[in-house]
């Protein structure tokens, strides 16, 4: 049974799992994420606890959901793939939160929250497509390789994973990712949804009701 002393190997497994979904994070980011999952402030604190287990408070011995590691629903996998494809079709070297939000208008779990919070996904799609057009520089005919998820894109995915872990829910869905994006209310992507009538409180209330 894994516990906090296996944190480094867990971080390595998490990086590999995210990389397999075309979402790459750094070593430091994965270590910080694992530390948070154990309820510890940061990796330095957890590292000190691993080296000196008899000194200071110990984190929870098991990571929440460690018997069932995080995984994405098939719909969310398709959404993340479409977000990268949306950037590629626009000759953009980076896939942004705007691309993700655009593709969430076709994700059934995210659509349910949008409708409950006053947003018509079909109407929002046109506005979000224009936002995605301007989200990153274009490189027509010269782009090499696949688009890279931006830091904001990756952080939104990380927040979705944490949210699912904290609630004990499996799998991670478009609903988790949408709520993670909504946690940054001042982002251009969220402002576009507000212009479409988004009620963030209603979105969170709907999500809580369907978790209970």
Description:
A two-stranded parallel ribbon has the order 1-2. The protein has two domains: 4-51, no CATH class; 74-211, Clp, N-terminal domain (Double Clp-N motif, Orthogonal Bundle). It contains eleven helices and two strands; from the N terminus they run ααααβαααβαααα. Mean pLDDT is 80; it is low at 55-66. Helices cover 59% and strands 2% of the residues. Helix 4 (74-89) packs across helix 5 (97-104). It has helices spanning 7-20, 27-37, 43-51, 74-89, 97-104, 108-116, 121-133, 151-167, 174-182, 188-195, 200-211, and strands spanning 94-95, 148-149. The chain has 212 residues and is mostly helical.
């Amino acid at each position: 049974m894994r516990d906090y002393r296996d944190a480094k190997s867990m971080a390595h497994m998490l990086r590999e799992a995210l990389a397999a979904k075309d979402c790459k994070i750094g070593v430091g980011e994965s270590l910080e994420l694992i530390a948070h999952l154990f309820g510890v402030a940061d990796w330095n604190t957890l590292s000190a606890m691993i080296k000196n287990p008899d000194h200071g408070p110990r984190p929870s011995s098991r990571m929440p959901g460690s018997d069932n590691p995080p995984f994405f629903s098939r719909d969310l996998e398709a959404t993340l793939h479409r977000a990268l494809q949306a950037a590629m079709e626009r000759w953009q070297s980076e896939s942004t939160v705007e691309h993700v939000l655009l593709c969430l208008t076709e994700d059934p779990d995210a659509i349910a929250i949008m409708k409950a919070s006053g947003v018509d996904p079909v109407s929002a799609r046109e506005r979000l497509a224009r936002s995605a057009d301007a989200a990153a520089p274009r490189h027509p005919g010269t782009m090499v390789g696949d688009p890279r998820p931006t830091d904001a894109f990756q952080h939104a995915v990380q927040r979705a994973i944490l949210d699912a872990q904290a609630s004990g829910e499996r799998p991670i869905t478009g609903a988790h990712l949408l709520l993670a994006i909504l946690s940054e209310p001042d982002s251009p992507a969220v402002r576009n949804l507000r212009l479409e009538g988004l009620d963030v409180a209603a979105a969170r209330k709907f999500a809580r009701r369907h978790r209970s």
